[in-house]
Write the structure tokens for this entry.
Amino acid sequence: MAKQYDVLFRLLLIGDSGVGKTCLLCRFTDNEFHSSHISTIGVDFKMKTIEVDGIKVRIQIWDTAGQERYQTITKQYYRRAQGIFLVYDISSERSYQHIMKWVSDVDEYAPEGVQKILIGNKADEEQKRQVGREQGQQLAKEYGMDFYETSACTNLNIKESFTRLTELVLQAHRKELEGLRTRASNELALAELEEEEGKPDGPANSSKTCWC
Amino acid sequence: MRGLTWAALLGVEGAIHAKYEAIDKDTPIPTDRQIEVDIPRCHQYDELLSSPEGHAKFRRVLKAWVVSHPDLVYWQGLDSLCAPFLYLNFNNEALAYACMSAFIPKYLYNFFLKDNSHVIQEYLTVFSQMIAFHDPELSNHLNEIGFIPDLYAIPWFLTMFTHVFPLHKIFHLWDTLLLGNSSFPFCIGVAILQQLRDRLLANGFNECILLFSDLPEIDIERCVRESINLFCWTPKSATYRQHAQPPKPAPDSGGVRSSPCFSSECPDPPKTDLSRESIPLNDLKSEVSPRISAEDLIDLCELTVTGHFKTPTKKTKSSKPKLLVVDIRNSEDFIRGHISGSINIPFSAAFTAEGELTQGPCTAVLQNFKGKVIVIVGHVAKHTAEFAAHLVKMKYPRICILDGGINKIKPTGLLTVPSPQI
């Protein structure tokens, strides 16, 4: 069966609990918005295919639990990501402050060259705003990231931010992808990178166990 | 009615109101923020739980639990776990709290430790073995595509399915869960997978994760029925976990206290020698099939009762499935002594290079037993596990291995030695 896409990328959503990671995702993939999504436990996933620069990109988006303790579980997914959304809530100063911590976790667990983008979500809640737009811009600049204020509720900048991160990932992997554009064949695809990645780590060679 | 029945099943008793009253539910604690974030997202389709009063009650019960369990912490998901108890005892917070406090040690022992990874990892590994035991074909497929329980089953077990199902389904499911022991949830998990079996088998990794991110409607009646059936087919010790709740010490009978026995290590104190032993997590992970204890094997083979004759003494054990013991040691060892009724298929010559069973009278017997419980017995753990894994690859269900191997049986005097032929 021919693949419906040229490449497959993995993007990851991280940020404090309740900043709206799942809402961003549902708005993007299903164009739906529910203000009270159940909390995410462990990880959750969605997929969508978009076309960027003539390339059909299948993006697999991993949504993570925001509660800090879940990091023991979620950090193992960092290393499989090619792009990461760092999300805070503009009506929560605290979630903004925590971005620094999330960035340092990315530095620690994500692969080198991973693309990052900063998102200030809930931009529709102007009257509850605690984090100024320029604060977001400033922080993004410090870390050399792009920045978007988004609203899953009003569908502000959702498609734009997902497309932007995808572009960044594509650019970062341009070399590997060059063959792809010239050849119509789907054979050589970065997607193949994925195949073995989903598998659990090989069983650690167990020590000799003899019942004698 | 259900609220009280559940409380009784959970053994809730005593001065629960006084105890609940005495807990400080007002002083701010660091967990407050997380609880505030989670409550407005928890089963909010329900009128009671989404009401301001419901939120206030939620907050108090959760805080009471956090404050009164200093060794445990609030993990997201605890809110979902609280929901059925709160709903059923909406006007009796103390009972909701008491039920939740009794439920957690029984079914989720140490899941809410600050560092719970060893508990969860062991749990998920045992779950993987249960999938292989009950549905080898599905297990093979899921392992091949790398669709491991870590990716989907954490919310199932951490919340005992309360994060996955709406309240009316939870009630139905838990009515049965509360009658079972702490191993029952594994069977529920396998039953859910089996309902999605065709779709899982037909799809690769990406489709499978999508399927689970938006779990399709599960027929809960069927799920309950199948869980019970799976439970009946599962040898008790196959779901042994070293991080499970240690058994309650037997009621003090006089001053007879056995020498300090690490009760957490021996699920059944009087028979420790024949119980399962804990092994390192990596070893457990490397084994596709579950181990069962010598105790279980003896019980399943009905060896304790007059083992000489095949004539069944009583039909009392008719509910127990028949089983076949496959001894994989070499034939010399086998002749020196083996479990009554076992067949001998030496590991070294059991499989062809293509991984097929070699032909022979014993392998024919094995093939005839496909579908029944098959216990692999050897004396090298690695070989036994490998043999079992081969059979799972060949879609043999209900494969397990004897923990500790043949040496566990030797001291019992239950090995038969055929008299020399004249």
In short: Helices of chain A lie at 21-30, 71-78, 93-97, 99-109, 133-142, 158-172, 174-182, 192-195. The radius of gyration of chain A is 19 Å. The CA atoms of residues 2 and 183 of chain A lie 15 Å apart.
